Amino acid sequence: MVIVVTGGTSGIGNAICNYLFSKGNRVYSLARRDFSDGNIVYLKCDITKKQEIINCFTEIYEKEKCIDVVINNAGMGISGALEYHSELELDKIINVNLKGTIMISQIAIPYLRESKGKIINIGSVAGELAIPFQTMYSVTKAGVHAFSAALQNELRPFGIKVVCLMPGDTKTSFTANREKNETNSFYGSRIEKSITKMEKDERNGTDPLKVAKVVYKVIKSKNPKTMIAIGANYKMFVFIKKILPIKFVQYVLYKIYG
Ligand SMILES: NC(=O)c1ccc[n+]([C@@H]2O[C@H](COP(=O)([O-])OP(=O)(O)OC[C@H]3O[C@@H](n4cnc5c(N)ncnc54)[C@H](OP(=O)(O)O)[C@@H]3O)[C@@H](O)[C@H]2O)c1
């Protein structure tokens, strides 16, 4: 199969690229950095720039004559109190995590209609259980979840499957790459405590290979679920959130991250 992965230069995306390559696929990564490891074709692409995406898809299709799977993985985090986020920060995280995923999908659809292929979006448990001081991250991931569910039904008659995977804490450079807005007049030690907790959990998090293996299962599956949390504990958190009163869920999240 011919598989396109955004953000294959690091973390989860890199694990996905290498695992899918090891299973005999031809894998292309779209990311901004120059990168090379011999197995994967790393194309330079900023997913917030539509023309760069179009150029990459044209190049891949001209070479391969088909595109079977597109994995929207590229993403970033910004932490801090929402009231201090600049417009630039808001635009940046929305453009990468949400608009980038949407634009890649728009451009991929004609190719996937031909191959009856799949779009796999990397969401996050933080899109289901919204985390204070990572508000914009949670907002963009909740957007990715809604986007995946709506698009799944939009594309169903074409035989294109859309799946959203929701990893929890995963050990990658995401933690070090997270942009921090440290402006703080009214929040005391709350922001620092919250960030310290989330960073500790990420550093002790799951191996990105686990996410790559779920991606592979989804690619092999004829009829995958639309929304899949990764790991037994995160499956349970997402399930519990649905059955418990929202007031209780919000209180627990406040106690942990607020
Ligand atoms: N780590 C976690 O705990 C966790 C948990 C749940 C979900 N996720 C999600 O998993 C995905 C991968 O994150 P990760 O943990 O692997 O983080 P990471 O190690 O920081 O990797 C992020 C990747 O995204 C790419 N990227 C960022 N901005 C881009 C842009 N404008 N255009 C193209 N590529 C861009 C980066 O490549 P370049 O810098 O080369 O452009 C890099 O390859 C993200 O969507 C993240 O939200 C992560």
Quick overview of this protein structure:
By secondary structure, this protein is of the alpha/beta class. It is built from nine helices and nine strands.
Textual characterization of the structure:
α1 (11-22) links the parallel β1 and β2. The termini are far apart. The chain contains nine helices and nine strands. The model has no long low-confidence stretch (mean pLDDT 97). 51% of the residues lie in helices and 14% in strands. With 258 residues, the chain is α/β, with parallel strands linked by helices. The protein has a seven-stranded parallel beta sheet, with helices on both faces. It has a two-stranded parallel ribbon with strand order 5-8. α2 (50-64) packs parallel to α3 (87-115). It has one domain (2-257): Rossmann fold (3-Layer(aba) Sandwich). The longest helix has 29 residues, at 87-115. NADP nicotinamide-adenine-dinucleotide phosphate binds next to α1 and α5.
